[in-house]
Amino acid sequence: MNYKIKTGNVISDAIINEKYNIAKMNNIEFICNFIVPDKITLDSVDLCVILSNCLDNAIEACMKIEDETINKKITINSYIHDLYLLIEVSNTSTNKLQYKNNKIISTKKNKNSHGIGISNIETIVKKYNGILDIISGKNKFILNIMLKVKNN
């Protein structure tokens, strides 16, 4: 495959390049500094779930922006720190998060078939003894994920 973005991992290459192309078709700036290091204990399916859900949500949030003066942008970064893989996905967003029982809920009409993305990410974060941090500010949404991917 001839991908524009290369991360060092076949799964993340496929997902990130697909989302990159969708973003570009929708005039969304896409910046990627995402690398998957060798010798980490991260299941490919788990990586797929995290990247797909994060980037789908980011693209959707950018596409909802109607104000032409707001720059639509998605940034995805990864870092290794000690035993942990840190993933940061940030995007432009003008929507306020909605919560119910301290959980983010979907703003889509059919809530039964939507809104499970963040829950899936939370499940994976717990599996890897990690931390999920969500920051929402003026025209910005940031998802920080920390996963333990190396043994002591």
From TrEMBL:
Question: Per its UniProt record, what CDD domains does this chain match?
Answer: HATPase_AgrC-ComD-like
Q: Does the keyword Membrane apply?
A: no
InterPro entries noted in UniProt: HATPase_C_sf, NatK-like_C
Q: Could you name the domain of life of the organism this protein comes from?
A: Bacteria
GO function term, MF aspect, one: ATP binding
**By what name is this protein known?**
ATP-binding protein
Instruction: Please tell me the species this chain comes from.
Output: Clostridium autoethanogenum DSM 10061
Span of the signal peptide: none
Q: Which UniProt keywords apply?
A: ATP-binding, Nucleotide-binding
- Give all residue intervals belonging to the Sensor histidine kinase NatK-like C-terminal domain: 43-147
Pfam hit, one:
HATPase_c_5
